[in-house]
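Exercise 3.2. Students should predict the tertiary structure of the chain below and write it as structure tokens, then compare their answer with the key that follows.

Predict this chain's 3D structure.
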Amino acid sequence: MTARGRRAAGERAGRPGGWGPRACPVAVAVTFDNLGEATDLERGLWPQDEPVGRHFSVTRALPRVLELLAEQDLAATFFVEGLNAEVYPDALGAIAAAGHEVAYHGWRHERWADLGPSLERELLERGVRALASLSLRPVGFRPPGGALAPASLQALKDLGFAYCSPAGQGATVRDGVAVLPFPWPLIDAFHYLPHFAGLREATLGAGDVLSPAALCRTVVTALDDALREGALLVLVFHPFLADADDRLQAIRAALAELRALVADGMAWCAPLRELAAWIRDQPDVSSWPLRLDEPAR
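Answer key:
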């Protein structure tokens, strides 16, 4: 869609009054998931004789991602496992110092939808304590695997979380917690990783691994669609998948499109904590539509 077409679409669509302090036609959150060895440790894939604390997602990829976000002048949300507060405290501090939000993504990327209430609350409390010890008390949570457990919303409310970001579509507030979902096709992992083949087959009709160029096209198309619909759009990237030059360039190209919309007053892009605070203040938010998706396996 051309810039003129995007502007016309934004003028036709959207929530009455628009999104955010500038009443923009669309709201967009740029988010990143996972850091370090946490997931491999949880799944038993990390070699027992290999030390932790020098993972390439932190030492190589994260600095490049932060540089890219500074280049595009966009503030993002980083969902990190609580273990990183112990292993990579300086990296988490650098994320916050650059103006980004640090939010919670489980202790070691547990399969969240499978957790019982007691263990879930224990892991939430442990993560809050660890991040708060770095003066990074989280207000946001994204469940590893994309789906909440049955008791999640109550536990999040009790522990003072303002929002969660599971897989799905729409936005609303439930039990005092803003629910700000992401769609599976807007995740880099959906495009690149073999174990997403089943989800790609169900969504796209083919399970083949996709290219960085395909990811960029998907994001740009989603931005156009969000403008027509006046929607909230949540993008999800992973530092460990952004280490290769072509993948980083795909993120750069996609975010450049977003940056142009922001500069033109067509998009409000902010960390999810800011979007959640605004959404929670809307008088009709409880009636906003929401669809939650099944977890990725």
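Discussion points: The longest strand covers residues 26-33. The CA atoms of residues 29 and 272 lie 6 Å apart.
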